[in-house]
Automatic annotation (TrEMBL):
Species per Swiss-Prot/TrEMBL record: Pelolinea submarina
InterPro entries: Cro/C1-type_HTH (IPR001387), HTH_LacI (IPR000843), LacI/GalR-like_sensor (IPR046335), Lambda_DNA-bd_dom_sf (IPR010982), Peripla_BP_I (IPR028082)
Residue span(s) of domain HTH cro/C1-type: 3-41
Protein name: LacI family transcriptional regulator
Top-level division of the source organism's lineage: Bacteria
UniProt KW keywords: DNA-binding, Repressor, Transcription, Transcription regulation
Sequence ranges assigned to domain HTH lacI-type in this UniProt record: 1-54
Molecular-function GO terms, alphabetical: DNA-binding transcription factor activity; transcription cis-regulatory region binding
Length: 341
């Protein structure tokens, strides 16, 4: 810091205030001069020592369920860009949708004295399991899911409405025998998508044939297994709706292995629009979640919590997903091929 002070003629106290992003630390010209000198000199502040003085580490934790999933990659990108531009560092951890591991990772981050934590809940059924985390008075924001009873901010999408709209679209094409590959029952987002699908089917047909609903686990293997089971039925569905991107991939594999053609033999619609869906043959109809925007919104919310002394009431912020229609869905054909045995 001495070198920066000597080069700029600015006091070390002011330089410290600029580095720590204290409001009104100096004029715009002085801030720019100091930042330029820091860059030219290659000066990197000792954040550990600084945190001891200011009782904050300027770090934010992010616990995700599955960082291998491209959907979460976009979400992480949105979080990271907001966090970095706001002067904070990000610590990322992966829970593998394991409740116990998620809890341990959150407690580890708290032991490192992060200023806040963003959590993609693995599927706790109640808020009790989060009590040890919330009792620390550290700011917490749930991302991509929420937990009933927890008085914290949550950023989600309109899973029920988006799922119902997708099913209504398949119905509008003339499909009646529509299958649904659901996610784990213990996640609110998964439960809402299932309810949206069931609601659309019951609204149109009065009831849903139980054999048309298969429970997966948000993995490629789970999607393949569920689709293979559906194709073993005496009368196969004319359309299938897979409730996340990885299960959509698995379902595609099972349909291909059965020797069926999309959409002439069976239509398929997925939840989560991936970058390659538009170039797949055929291109895939999908519900597009604004993953990047979810990440940005959650990060902005937590930064607001860190900066504002007056705290607004926690909110459930619901963003809108949209249906993107492509070539993998079409009206049911009267003469379809049967799966090969």
């Amino acid at each position: 810091m001495n070198d920066v002070a000597e080069k700029t003629g600015v006091s070390k106290t002011t330089i410290s205030r600029i580095i720590n992003q204290i409001p009104n630390a100096a004029s715009k010209e002085t801030v720019e001069r100091v930042l330029k000198a820091i860059d030219e000199l290659g000066y990197y502040p000792n954040q550990v020592a600084a945190s001891l003085k200011r009782t904050t580490t300027r770090t934010i934790g992010l616990v995700m369920g599955d960082i291998e999933n491209p959907f979460f990659g976009l979400m992480i990108k949105g979080v990271e860009e907001v966090v970095r531009s706001s002067g904070y560092s990000l610590i990322l951890a992966n829970s593998n949708y394991d409740d116990a591991l998620e809890h341990d990772l959150c407690m580890l981050m708290l032991s490192k004295q992060v200023d806040a934590i963003l959590i993609a809940p693995s599927g706790f059924s109640s808020c009790k399991q989060y009590a040890p985390i919330l009792d620390r008075q550290t700011h917490v924001v749930f991302i991509d899911n929420y937990v009933p009873g927890c008085n914290v901010d949550s950023v989600i999408v309109n899973n029920y409405e988006a799922s119902k709209e997708a099913c209504d679209y398949l119905i509008s094409l003339g499909h009646k025998k529509i299958a649904f590959i659901a996610g784990p029952a213990n996640r609110i987002s998964s439960d809402q998508r299932t309810k949206g699908f069931v609601g659309a089917m019951e609204e149109e047909f009065g009831s849903l044939e139980p054999s048309l609903l298969k429970r997966g686990d948000h993995t490629i293997a789970g999607g393949y297994r569920c689709m293979a089971e559906l194709l073993q039925q005496p009368e196969i569905p004319t359309a299938v709706f897979a409730s996340n991107n990885l299960m959509t991939v698995g379902a595609l594999g099972a349909i291909k292995d059965a020797g069926l053609s999309i959409p002439s033999d069976i239509s398929i619609l997925g939840f989560d629009d991936m970058y390659w869906y538009s170039i797949n043959q055929p291109s895939l109809t999908a519900v597009d979640q604004p993953a990047y925007e979810i990440g940005q919104t959650a990060a902005k919310r937590v930064v607001m919590r860190l900066r504002n002394k007056k705290q607004p009431s926690p909110e459930v912020i619901e963003l809108k997903a949209k249906l993107i229609v492509r070539d993998s869905t079409a009206p049911p054909q009267p003469h379809r091929n049967a799966p090969k045995t």
